[in-house]
Design a protein that fits this description.
heterodimer, A: 117 residues, alpha+beta, three-stranded antiparallel β-sheet, 4 helices, 14% strand, B: 870 residues, six-stranded mixed barrel, six-stranded mixed β-barrel, 25 helices, 16% strand
Amino acid sequence: MSRHDETTRGDAELLQGTLDMLILKIAALRPIHGYAMVQRLQQISRDALQIRQGSLYPALYRLENRGWLKAEWKTTEGGREAKYYSLTRAGRRQLDQETAGWKRLCQAISLILETAE
Amino acid sequence: MRWNSWFKRRRWEQRMNAEFRFHLESQTEDYIGQGLSREEAELRARREFGTLAWAKDECRDQRPLEWLADLLRDFRYAFRSLRRTPGFAITAIATLALGIGANTAIFSLVHAVLLRSLPYPEPGRLVRVASVTQGDVSIPQYEFWKEHASAFATAAGYRGGGDGSLVSGTKREWVQVMVVTADFFRTLGVSPTLGREFHPEETRPNGPQAIIFSDNLWRRAFDADPGVLGRVITLENTNYTVVGVLPRGFWFPQSADVFVPLRPAGGVSDKGANTEMIARLKPGVSLRQAEASMATVTESFRRAMAGDVLADYRGLTLIPYQEWLTGDVRLKLLLLFGAVVLLLLIACSNVASLLVARLAARQKEIAVRMALGSGSGRLLRQFLVENILLGVAGGLTGLLGAYWLLDGLVALMPFQLPASVPIRLDLPVLAFTFAIALGTGLVFSLAPLVAAARLDIQETLRAAGRSSGAGGTRQRTRSFLVVSEVALSVTLLVGAALLIQSLYRLHREPLGFSPRGLITFWTPPSPERRGKAVELRNFEARLLERLRAMPGVRGVAAVNVLPLTNQNNFPTQREGHPEQSIGGMEIRIITPEYFEVMGIPLRRGRPFTGADTSAALPVVLVNETLARQWWSEGNPLGDRIRIGRYHGQDLGDVPDSPREVVGVVADTKAVYLKAPPRATVYIPSAQAPWMTDGMTWVVRAGVVKGVAEQLRQVIAEIDPQQRVERMRTMEQIVTSVTADSRFDAWLFGGFAGLALLLTAVGIYGLLSFSVARRTSEIGTRMALGARRADVLRLVLKQSFTLIAIGLFAGLAGAAVLTRSLSSLLFGVGATDPLSYLTVSALLVLVGVLASYLPARRATKVDPIVALRCE
């Protein structure tokens, strides 16, 4: 029981920066609720990213508090009430920054890997 | 929490729950769509989601200001958790209250007396100018230094003027008089609110007589009437013009109602060192610079006064005024403060020890909470909050105790506290208490937190309350705490033992007279007899006659200065032996029956009789100390002495003739009980025409009770105007001179006793805990054939090891720290082996008592029950 719990937290820490960026990216397309966000994450990453579903929510709440996401309660297609997250202007700026930074990092790493070969 | 925010919060929680519910239900439905049964789908959705409580907690933490709500929740939880264990809570709070209360009380004294600066502008520039032995100065010295010391901006002299009767119209008031030079108030930096200071001509002989009132007197006797300025009042038969009224709240260590100018008389009284001198340094002049300039002034004084200055004259020095005021009290207060800080440390380690035990008992609760998703940071915060709550509760209780105790403590203090403000629990003291309450909360949290940080929940859950590795750490922490407690108490106990022994020695110090059944009082010269020796002697003779005739009175005598109250000395020389001179010869002027009434035995020669009149041969009696000093191998009887002559030099002014020694009496204590008797000469009052101070009377009565009233009545019959002051028994005087030592011993002893008690509780707690933890081990040993005695030895060995380590550390600490006590000790050294031994024995005894109950409990362990515990 306890191991399960700690692994969850380990993931959260490992993914902290990355998870935030992914959330912003997904929310940038259109307003989306938490459950759909989890589905999209797993779908896009072809299940390569294993995150505990519950650990998504603290990240969503944090981003909302930072003013990068805004939330709204809306009715789903199934006729239920759900909380939809969408990107704010500040969120978009943050996403652009993080994407640029990520790309630079990736280029640098692949450059090193290729040169080292 | 306010309703508004409570609703907001509830709404927020509901929304969060709704969001999570939506997530779980959507997932469940998706799984059902994939063909799973409802139960399976629900289970899988939950598993995929992870710990719900953890996710909620983490989300809550993201809320702005969430930490505040958390803190409130933590406090509520801590409160409930403490209420569930009242025994622990009460013990911990009481222990802390003791430590914090004692600290608060003593700190209020330290703050009022030592930390607060004097109520004058730039008090740091005020210095006391005194002889190298810190004594008062003479008028010539005062005048010379005032004129020549370039470091002084202003300087002033002052003397206590005793009390006098102030008459204004039909009103009569008893007032405290202070005699001051013209610059007195300017030096302090205080100016009258009404009127002015003294003019210099008012301090000259035959100048106009002026008087300044205190605000208190002005309001008390003159209804705060501004018209009092310029009015002429009478003080002790002399007329004065009121020239000023001091500000309200004006404070000076010697309190006074009226101030009159100090007028040098130009005679012998000027040469006596009887004026206190105070100076204000020039701005920018440091104490060191001023001090350095004193030597030059001393040299010019010696040159200017050649012939009048003794060869061993060393001039004047400077002492910061506040430092001089606090003098002995500073050391005492600092020692007391040290004692209560040690007490607080002991209290802290006791509570820390309790907390470690509590943590062990709560292992399962902690493990469950961690498993349910509480972060370890959150748990630590929870404990911290609980401990701070304990600290604050202890602090408040202690504050309450200090509030009740403080007045009593100040009233009991036998020494004057030179505090310019009332001693009370004011804001800075409250801040101090709050700080130490919080501080102690943090300090005693450290040990348990160290233990908690090592807590491994998996292991704890698996072990489920059995002995574990982490338990070992905790045991070591507690052992360390007990050792430090023992060491700290030993240090305090040794200090107390030394003080108690000093008190005991002081009580056994021979007085040289028998105080039992003696009533004493002082008859100050009434205004019409002031300065008139013949009238005074006549009055004394009449009074002696009447008192002697009183029923129940067995003997009456009078003396100028009673033992243990004051001194009165004058340079004296053995006639014909200039090398045998004593500058501070104690002079006692007595009526013939003095020795008999006081119970002072005559060693040789004869006592005074009624025949030793002013017309007869001048005679003197000497005490044994003087006889030893001047006639070590000869007979003092028949030899002669000369009062007022020093190294062959006549000091003039005392018109005394050579006196023949007619007897030797036993020694008595002079001013101080702690000091050996001083060389003393006794003169019959009939032969001392220069003596015009009031006499102190000694009446030996069969029954002391009710005599005071009869005495006053008899005196009033002779002269209704005659005042009777300081009526008390000789035993009261003796008690009052040991009051300081008694107070030190009691207070230190009290704190040390408390420390010992707390330590006993600490030892008891540790052993009980340890025995409870080792129940299975003890059970196994007993099952394998260990006897009760073996078990007893096992437990006692543990406690003795700790006590021994603590004892040695404490004795070593005491050897270092008690050195600062040495000035308070009497007849016993700071390293007195008896005190150290007694304390060691006492501590071992208390240790055995505290260990006995847990050890006995260990021997009662039933092996079968103990083994089943696992």
